[in-house]
Amino acid sequence: MEALRTRERVIPVGTTVFERTPPAPRVIAHALAGTRQSVFWLDDLPASRPRASFTGEATADLVVIGAGYTGLWTALAAKRRDPSARVVILEGKRVGWAASGRNGGFCEASLTHGRDNGLARWPDEIDRLDKMGLANLDAMGDDIARLKIDADWERTGSLGVAIEPHQLEWLDEWAEDAASRGEEGVVRLDEQQTRAEVNSPTYLGAVWEKRSTAMVHPGKLAAGLAHAAEEAGVEIFEESPVHALDDDGDRLKVVTLRGRITAPRVLLATNVFPSLLRRNRLMTVPVYDYVLMTEPLSDAQLAEIGWSSRQGLSDLANQFHYYRLSRDNRILFGGYDAVYHYGRQVRQRYEDRPASFERLASHFFTTFPQLEGLRFTHKWAGAIDTSTQFSAFYGTARGGRVAYAAGFTGLGVAATRFAGDVMLDLLEGEATERTELEMVRKRPLPFPPEPVAAVGINMTRWSLDRADHDRGRRNILLKTLDALGLGFDS
Questions:
Q1: What does the pLDDT average to over 242-268?
Q2: Confidence band (pLDDT; 50, 70, 90) for 11?
């Protein structure tokens, strides 16, 4: 087998670090014994009574469909713009139960799933988008403080770590690009400096972006936003799935199982779930992401790995991992597998995937072998609303009376706040700095129908895996998708 010599280590080409140094099977079995199939962030919330379901008939000034981050931020912004407006949120299950309560809690400033993705798609406005994204993250932190939301907000920044030799060049390019633009708070770390921050034998170097990322408790954020919205006068109804959105003269009729609301304006914040607008049915696909959460680390275990600056971390592979510390010093470890199921379906049975959890556990102990013996308390999964441009898209329907945003593709925690203001601008027919963005005005390409979608997505996943095994080299399929503006470089 061909080998690459680097820093006095001989590394076989064609294998990744996780395949070269896997932990013993007994370590994985011990760590996963007794792990609950449950979302830690939601289990960590105080018990609360479900909100009432919507019944009967009513009128409102604005109906928001969906009580995740997008719907909650938008409802709050709507009441801030017009405190007298009657704003109603209809949620199919409970506040924050889906993607908003299941994510890793990384609040990235980028509105475009990273600068590289934005530069490839909107080169003429990427600098403006970066500034708007950072301003949005700043404002999000200010809102959380002003609204007194205890969401474990930590402005730690993030580390992008190289775990393969070919990724070191990417770190250099990243740091050099930031320096050429005068971007502050981007620091290139060598191997020793990286391991001084977080001690893993897999790390070869890193870039620390100190300003662009905050950590948050996803469940507490959703619950806090809902409480703040109700304090502002927003009405939230749970267990009220919407079955139809019909025209009713110059108004719209929102139909639930046991009631109807009419309103002049409706906002769709339904994320990965099938859109009430036929035009958007092919615009996203659900891709399942898997996560493990450890028990709290002891002081001695923390001393073994360092991590005193508590940054969010991710590696630079196409199939990447993301991980962070919770307030009580658990490690959330997720990513790598991104699984698409035929038919664009969102199903609870897709959430329990033993092979993915075992793979994550193996990769965790390769990353932190000094934590052998640690157990995982929780495992879960969630569906990511993936779009072909790998960031949110926006639009209106029904003569400008309906606005929507979807397709955040895994980096939407902070972007949902921005999306709320975009959608309200669109509903109000305002020409603002936000609505004039090409990113907002231009719709991405839809995904093809089945079976083409499943074949294409799974071929792309296979190609990304091959690239990770071949020093990042992209094959003809990936190069073609790049040329068409459909390539993924996360």
A1: 96
A2: very low
Sign, CA dihedral 252-225-379-212, equals: positive
Q: 153 near 129, Cβ under 8 Å?
A: no
The secondary structure element, H or E, covering residue 259 is strand 259-263
- Burial category of 239 from C-beta neighbours within 10 Å (exposed 0-12, middle 13-18, buried 19 and up): middle
d(CA 86, CA 236): 11
Whole-number Cα distances in Å, 384 to 223, 369, 413: 20, 30, 12
Strands 376-386 and 213-215: unpaired
Overall pTM surpassing 0.85 (yes/no)? yes
Q: What is the pLDDT, as a whole number, of residue 9?
A: 46
In angstroms, rounded to a whole number, what is the distance separating the alpha carbons of residues 334 and 20? 20
Whether 132 and 118 have beta carbons less than 8 Å apart is answered as no
Residue range 218-238, pLDDT digits in tens:
999 999 999 999 999 999 999
Query: What is the DSSP secondary-structure string of 46-84?
Result: PP-PPPPPP-EEEE-SEEEE--SHHHHHHHHHHHHH-TT
Higher pLDDT, 484 or 82: 82
The DSSP code sequence of 190-245 is -HHHHHHHB--TT--EEEEESSSEEE--HHHHHHHHHHHHHHTT-EEE-S--EEEE
Residue with tokens 């109000």: 428
Q: Residues 200, 174: contact at Cβ < 8 Å?
A: no
**What letter represents residue 472's amino acid?**
G
Of 33, 25, 103, 24, nearest to 295 by C-alpha is 33
In whole angstroms, give the CA distance from residue 436 to residue 420.
15
Average pLDDT over residues 357-384: 97
